[in-house]
UniProtKB/TrEMBL annotation:
Start and end residues of each DUF4439 domain: 29-158
Protein name, UniProt field: DUF4439 domain-containing protein
Domain of life: Bacteria
Cross-referenced InterPro entries: DUF4439, Ferritin-like, Ferritin-like_SF
TM helices/strands, residue ranges: none
Pfam families: DUF4439 (PF14530)
Secretion signal, residue range per the UniProt entry: none
Amino acid sequence: MTPAPTPSAPATATASATASASADAGVDAAQAALAGEHACVYGYGVVGAHLPDGAEPAHTALAAHRSRRDELAALIAGTGADPVAAEPGYALPSPVTDEASARALAVLLEERLGALYADVVGAATTPELREFAVRGVVMSAVQALSWGGSPVAFPGLDGRV
């Protein structure tokens, strides 16, 4: 019986470079999702300020996004990368002046974040990160619906497939 051939040095180097690029893409996608979580934390402060008394849904969403932000930052740090920091402020896509515009902002935040998490699902190189991202897509879709968003067949991929 002949032993199986061993990969040549160039093939091994190419495989290693491909694996490294794949890991980098997963971390880059996770960093983008983390930036999205930072934006959601900021945005929900604005949303809550424009809801009538008892803005409990905004407080609940804010707490959930803070928790997910911290968990994602820990996953990124676990790869050896420095998690992206929050910006000092974020430009809103449109003025938020009342409850309707606050709800519209919440829907937009969740839809954008869902798309970022969908990117992580496709680029993740570990089961842990992929599972976290899948839960992020689902959470964002449910939150968008709770704020008055429309259901879509493929949350996070709407308009992208």
